[in-house]
Amino acid sequence: MTQLFKMAFRDLGRNKRRTLLSALAVSVGMSLLLLMASVVAGEMRGALQNTIQLQSGHLQIRSVNYDENKISLKWDDLIANPQGVIAQVKALPQVTDATPRLIASGIVSRGENSRGVQLIGIDPSAPANQVFRAGLLEGAFIAADDREGIMIGKPLAQKFDLKVGDTVSLLVNKSEGDVDEQLVIVRGIYTTNTTSYDESTVFMPLAKAQVFTGAGDHATIIFILLQDRELADVVAAAIQSSNLQTVTWRGMNKMVVQFEDFAGAYMVVLYLIVLGITATVVTNTLVMAVFERTREIGILSAIGMKGGRIMAQFLVEGALIATGGIIGGLILGGMLSMYFAKYGFYVGDMGLTGMLMGDQIYAYLTLNDAIYLTVTAYVVTLIASLYPATLAARMEPVEALHG
Amino acid sequence: MEVAKVVNATRVFKIGQMETHALRGVELSIQSGEFTALVGPSGSGKTTLLQLIGLLDQPTTGSVSINGKEATRLTRNQRADLRRGAIGFIFQFFALIPTLTAYENVEMPLLLNGMKPAERKIRVNEMMAAVGLMDRAHHRPDQLSGGQQQRVAVARALSINPSLVLADEPTANLDTENGKQVMDIMQKLNKETGVTFVFATHDPRVISYAKRVVTLEDGLIVKDAR
């Protein structure tokens, strides 16, 4: 075995440039795939985190009659006395926060401009809403007893040319089915770095939203965050009520989960295409080596080397090229992934519905992806070495000796 | 004892529609300890006969036996096994593996035979000493002269203690002095170890070393002189 590796190593060293170029092809392919895998993983991770933090939470409690597509404000579709339920939920050790939200559809208008928005009544002091407070760009965060103030997102403010202190007209659908309109003051401008969310979401203190929409003391949902998202099913099972339903993040983010599955399948195809191209380079290199060393193959065969051993010789050469290429690829790809994990890159609003993707994608390289790619690259390179190895092993010694 | 036996062997090469009869029914028996030259003009079938005896090629008809074992119907790997244990080769071109040192080239057949490292070391040193190249053992082929390379090839061929060594024009690419050195070593080893040598040549100086001269013409043995 030592001899096998020694010979393979020296044979590869005969044409250093060709060997290096082959290993480089594997490295470049491998590093690009690592980067792509980390970008896709980062994108999925970011989208899921974003959607959970901003929209779905880990769990939501809703009225059994609630239909999220209708944004109904009928009292039967809402949760009565949410504080009672919240107190019970907060008693569970896995729960980090539970807070009521009232969701209504409305229209913001100023002068000639108007835009449909989702009005969300929130408890400004709830830790689960800290994400919006953290994204405050201008002005102040709304206070619980504010009766005129709203928070708007940066894209909406830019579109309407709004500044803190400006007044806009807000029209909302009410519980009774009619509409109401009020002038409200922009207290603060926020960003979640998710354009699609920020341009269509307006916040108001829960108490004011309840009065404005005629919802009484009702809430649309109870938004719940847990210590770990994998605890969602356990906690959901612990929350039982005849007139309420509990929905987990997985159930609410089917699109993201499906997209993640699709991205996984898509990446496998991409791996095979890119590695297939690099494998062609390795095959070409080894086929050239077989033809250059035909006479040597004849000599080795003449002194009694069997076809299997000759085949192993070229497979080891392929494995050595793969090792060099993969190590180089892991270093290069790892560095690129680290760079984009730190600085990310701007993609803007991708216009996807059903999932909240941030404007910036941060790469996220997982150990699983690195191992999977390493093994796949090895297997593909070894498969690529099979043809030249078989070619060498099948040579008739007498023909090979003639070169 | 009969080391190699060729019975009514023919070898026909087909190139497109054309057939070339390299051997036309050769009968030959090589006994242990012989120092035999196959001679004849170019195209007479010397190399083809040597390749059949060396199991590098197979006859179109007829048979070849090595140490009493009929080899014509053996698979490629079985023929490789037989070669590895019984036959050493010396080629016209200096057939060494360029990436291995002289020592490693001589060691290769022993490795393939699964000899233990300590025994291997002793055997390789013995053979390097026998061909007078102990001081060049760790040089690569491109650092050796043609004569030295051919002496390494002789050492490699003899390292496995073969019953038969086949040499195809072993001095063709050497000058007179180096050619003489190689032939002297082969003759000495034949006398000292009793190993059988069969070599193809048309060099009269090399023929003069032989104890038996088999002459081929147009694929047939026309003379067998002892």
Structure in words:
The complex is a heterodimer of chains A (403) and B (226). Chain A is α+β, with helices and mostly antiparallel strands and 403 residues long. Chain A is 53% helix and 20% strand. Chain A is built from 14 helices and twelve strands. In chain A, the strands form two sheets. Chain A has a six-stranded mixed beta barrel. A two-stranded antiparallel sheet of chain A has the order 11-12. With 226 residues, chain B is of the alpha/beta class. In chain B, β7 (164-168), α6 and β8 form a beta-alpha-beta unit. In chain B, α3 crosses α4 (117-130). Chain B is globular. In chain B, 50% of the residues are buried. The mean pLDDT of chain B is 89. Chain A binds chain B through residues 3, 7, 10-11, 13-14, 295-296, 299-309, 396-398, 401, and chain B through 51, 54, 56-57, 76-77, 80-81, 83-85, 88-89, 91, 93, 95-100, 104, 108-109, 111-113, 156.
Assign a percent range to the helix content of chain B: 25-40%
Largest inter-chain contact set: A-B, 23 and 28 residues
Order of helices and strands of chain A: HHEHEEHEEHEEHEHEHEHHHHEEHH
Give the C-level CATH assignment of the domain at 2-94 and 162-225 in chain B. Answer: Alpha Beta
Total beta strands of chain A: 12
CATH superfamily of the domain at 2-94 and 162-225 in chain B: P-loop containing nucleotide triphosphate hydrolases
Q: How would a crystallographer describe the biggest sheet of chain A?
A: 6 strands, mixed, barrel
Fraction of residues in β-strands of chain A: 15-25%
- Silhouette of chain A: elongated
According to CATH, the fold-level topology of the domain at 2-94 and 162-225 in chain B is Rossmann fold
State the total count of DSSP E strands of chain B: 10
Helical/strand content category of chain B: alpha/beta
Radius of gyration of chain A: 31 Å
In whole angstroms, the N-to-C terminal distance of chain A is 27 Å
Give the uncertain stretches of chain A in residue-range form. Answer: none
Give me the Rg of chain B, rounded. Answer: 17 Å
The overall pLDDT average of chain A reads 89
Strand content of chain B: 25-35%
Q: Please state the average pLDDT score of chain B.
A: 89
